[in-house]
Amino acid sequence: MQQYQMTGGKDGGGGAGAGAGAVNGGAIGGAIGSALGLGNPSNSGSANNGSAAASEWMSSTHWQQQMQMAQLSRQTANSPHSYARSAAVASRTASGQNPIPLTVTELAVQLVQQNQNQTQAAKNAAAGGNAVVGRPAGGMLNPHQRKEQLEEERQRRINEDINKQFWTAIDLSGQGLTNMTPKLFNYNFLQKLYLNHNKLTSLPASVTKLGQLKVLDLSDNLLTDLPAEIGLMYTLRYLFLFDNKLQELPYALGTLFQLEVLGLDGNPLSDHTREIMAKEGTRGVIIDLRERAPVTIESPPREWLLFEEDKNNSKPRKDERTPQQLQQSRDNKDKSNSKDDKKDGSSSANESDSSSVAGTSASSVTTTTNTSANSAVSNGPPSQSDFSIMSYNTLCDRMATPQLYAYTPSWALGWNYRKERLLEEIVSIGTDIICLQEVDKISYDDLWVPKLSKLGYTALHWPKGRARTMPESEAKKVDGCAMFYKHEKIKLIERHNIDYNLLALRKDDFKKTADIYNRVMNKDNIAMINVFEQVQTGRLMIVANTHLHWDPAFKDVKLVQVALLLEELEKVVDKYTSNSTPEGAKYPKLTDGKNIPLVVCGDYNSTTDSAVYQLFAQGKIEGTHEDLEGRVYGKITDEGTTHKLGLKSAYSEIGELPFTNYTPNFVEVIDYIWYSTNSLSVGGLLGQIDPEYTKHFVAFPNPHHPSDHIPLAAQFNFKKVKDAPPKHTSTPNFGNTSYGSSRKT
Question: Which branch of life, at top level (predicted)?
Answer without folding.
Answer: Eukaryota
